[in-house]
From TrEMBL:
It catalyses: Hydrolysis of terminal, non-reducing beta-D-glucosyl residues with release of beta-D-glucose. PANTHER family: BETA-GLUCOSIDASE, BETA-GLUCOSIDASE M-RELATED. The lineage of its organism: Eukaryota, Fungi, Dikarya, Ascomycota, Pezizomycotina. Keywords: Carbohydrate metabolism, Glycosidase, Hydrolase, Membrane, Signal, Transmembrane, Transmembrane helix. The chain crosses the membrane at residues 72-93, 105-124, 136-159, 166-185. This is beta-glucosidase.
């Protein structure tokens, strides 16, 4: 059976208990002291909270400084924490111990000056090496306020006050990455809204009926039926199958915009309004069916024992992307390198010449240093291809020939 005896209240169990509501006006609650027996202990202004640590009688003791002075210094230390925190771990263990022989004030002052100078250096740097050197030094020296802020707080504030002061100081560190405004983002909606205001037309939109997007674009089919003669824009990183709706009469064009970044809206509007002619080319093949990609959907990785790990030797044949479609006579929806323009181009004078390195190049790359992007020999120039390209249409545009 459950215990049915009446339970004692908290006040009955612990005679000196206090409700948290009774302490709401106290910044910190440490102990209730009988004023008749507290001896020489110094108390807070409420008359019952013991000050920890006990301040001395010296007016130069940071614990005895005026509240204004304490909070000004705390603000300076917190604001200094806004500086970039790159390399903070190294700077903290290296520089903060120097506060003992040189005092905290001298340490903080010198490091803030150096951090400001290195920040100006990074802004004026003209080379990557110079910029990186400035950023490393800036992170190293700007860490004093982040790693040493607690030292100042412990010196100036009593134990019961420190929790709130530490939270305020830490808030400056947390908020520092978001203190500056982000880079502008020009969305498609805002870009088209500006254009219709200029030409006096109307913009219709629907943000309420967005559907999840999958590889076969099944959700787009429903959207296409609601469109009235309008181009489709696809923002996606990889291949996108479009055969479920590409032949619908409402679809007049398709833009594979991929991930265009902060100028997504303006770039899209300029193409739709024919201010710019598209010049992009597909870097992959768009198949009609997912099965057309075959083993490309499940690639085989190289084994660890290979001398060319993690490169593949293609023992099954080089059937990458369009090569598979050619080898198996598969007709794609859009071939590798496909791309339309508002104009036409004429190509002539194709010329190919092997370099000395290309004429004697082995099938597999020779052993050599491994740099960023695989073996260095993979970037050797083995041939030079040249061609004459002429814009034969009436619209200014750019062409990107592909091999």
């Amino acid at each position: 059976m459950d215990d049915l005896k009446p339970r004692q209240s908290l006040d009955e169990q612990v005679g000196d208990a206090a409700l948290s509501s009774d302490l709401k006006d106290s910044e910190g609650y440490i102990a209730q002291v009988d004023t008749e027996h507290h001896g020489n202990l110094k108390l807070a202004r409420d008359g019952h909270t013991v000050l920890v640590p006990q301040p001395s009688d010296d007016t130069r003791d940071p614990l005895n400084w005026s509240p204004v002075k304490k909070h000004v210094i705390r603000f300076i230390v917190s604001f200094a924490a806004f500086l970039p925190d790159y390399g903070s771990a190294v700077g903290a263990v290296t520089l903060n111990p120097q506060a003992t022989p040189f005092t905290r004030f001298i340490l903080l002052s010198c490091e803030v000056v150096i951090a400001t100078a290195t920040a100006a250096w990074s802004a004026a740097a003209t080379t990557f090496e110079s910029f990186m050197a400035a950023r490393i030094l800036n992170g190293f020296f700007s860490t004093v306020a982040q790693g040493g802020g607690l030292m100042f707080i412990f010196d100036m504030f009593f134990f019961h006050e420190r929790a709130r002061k530490i939270y305020i100081w830490a808030a400056f560190i947390i908020l520092s990455p978001a203190s500056m405004p982000p880079a502008y983002i020009n969305s498609p909606y805002s870009a088209f809204q500006q254009r219709v205001m200029q030409d006096g037309t109307f913009l219709y939109w629907d943000f309420e009926s967005q559907d999840p997007v999958y590889a076969n674009a099944g959700s787009d089919a429903g959207i296409v039926h609601k469109l009235i003669f309008y181009p489709m824009s696809i923002h996606k990183a990889g291949v996108r199958l479009v055969d479920q709706w590409i032949d619908h009469p409402n679809v007049t064009a398709v833009l594979f915009a991929h991930l265009p970044g902060q100028d997504a809206g303006s770039s899209l509007a300029e193409i739709i309004y024919r201010d710019q002619s598209p010049s992009g080319r597909l870097p992959y093949t768009v198949a009609k069916n997912e099965s057309d990609y075959g083993e490309l959907l499940m690639p085989v990785t190289a084994d660890n024992a290979s001398n060319y790990y993690t490169s593949a030797n293609f023992t099954e044949g080089v059937y990458i992307d369009y090569r598979r479609f050619d080898a198996f006579n598969i007709t794609p929806r859009y071939e590798f390198g496909f791309g339309l323009s508002y104009t036409t181009f004429e190509y002539s004078g194709l010329h190919l010449a092997l370099t000395s390195a290309g004429a004697n190049a082995p099938v597999l790359p020779p052993p050599g240093p491994v740099t960023e992007g695989r073996q260095a020999s993979l970037w050797d120039s083995i041939a030079v291809v040249s061609e004459d390209v002429e814009n034969s249409g009436a619209v200014a545009a750019s062409a990107i020939p592909q091999l």
